[in-house]
Design a protein that fits this description.
alpha/beta; Alpha-Beta Plaits; four-stranded antiparallel beta sheet; 8 helices; 37% helix
């Protein structure tokens, strides 16, 4: 019996031609995407109506990307490419400026801004989240990045989001978290939202309490994320409370009162997608907040 002839392995030249073919196809697809966005602008008249941000769609796109990703290409690279594509085409639809608070660290915030929005979107820095919120409020459709964690010495910037016409928190970045994320600084994205484009998996509330202290803080459900800033006006604190699906703000306020605090006010200041976390070698899972 004769042995089947083995096919010769491809040459380096053959493989490089394949890479060139794929690169050209990717470029053509990006240009085709641009043509569709051009038609989208004409259909929706986005350029006239303001913000083109669609946080619900963006969160879903990033989740699907992570779930289908495989092979030797690092997830960081794939995620950053798609983030730049999404942000750039959003900018093409309706030009905006990206404002960022450098208080948590210049390098960390710049990494987050560039990873998620690239270099095409104009970037303006501020020292303090309040300046970011004010700039977004004064704009037609700008976006702001502020820290999603407590910053020493920072005031309750989120109280400026309480009015109905004020900007709101529309996203929490990164959409998919992992220990070695190259832009892992947790940040809130603040903008004037399109109500039909929001994702409401996690509600974010501004809550003012009197009688705040360590015992009261411990009474809050650990799955509810809280940033607390002392408020000397009534010997209490201004809280930014992220309430995930399956929990209610009423449960949080009941726990506060049960621990001896009194609630002086509450206002919905935004919402965002549930955080997805990837542990090494595992699939992404929602963290619940």
């Amino acid at each position: 019996m004769s042995t089947p002839a083995r096919a010769d392995p491809p040459s380096l030249a053959d493989l490089r031609r394949e890479i060139d073919r794929i690169d050209e196809a990717m470029h053509r697809l990006l240009m085709e995407r641009g043509e569709i966005i051009d038609r989208l602008i004409a259909t929706k008249r986005t350029a006239e109506s303001g913000s083109a941000f669609r946080p619900a769609r963006e969160a879903d796109m990033m989740r699907r990307l992570v779930e289908r990703h495989r092979g030797i290409l690092p997830l960081d690279t794939a995620e950053s490419i798609w983030r730049v594509i999404i942000a750039t085409f959003t900018y093409v639809q309706a030009p905006f400026v990206l404002h960022a608070d450098l208080t948590p660290g210049d390098a960390a915030m710049r990494d987050s801004a560039r990873f998620h929005f690239g270099f095409t979107v104009p970037f303006v820095t501020h020292l303090g989240a309040g300046g970011v919120v004010a700039a977004v409020a004064a704009s037609k459709g700008d976006l702001g990045l502020v820290p999603a964690t407590a910053v020493a010495g920072a005031g309750p910037w989120w109280t400026a989001l309480e009015a109905d016409a004020a900007p709101k928190i529309i996203a929490r970045l990164p959409f998919v978290e992992r220990a070695d994320h190259p832009a892992g600084l947790p940040v809130f994205a603040v903008a004037r939202p399109n109500p039909d484009a929001l994702v409401r998996e996690v509600e974010v509330w501004s809550v003012r309490v009197a009688g705040w202290g360590p015992g009261v803080a411990r009474a809050i459900d650990p799955i509810v994320e809280v940033i607390a800033v002392p408020d000397r006006a009534f010997d209490g604190a201004a809280l930014l409370v992220s309430v995930p699906q399956g929990r209610r703000l009423a449960d949080v306020t009941a726990a506060l009162v049960g621990a001896g605090a009194s609630v002086r006010g509450e206002a919905l200041v935004g919402s965002h997608a549930t955080r997805y976390t990837i542990s090494e070698g595992a699939r992404p899972v929602p963290t619940g907040r």
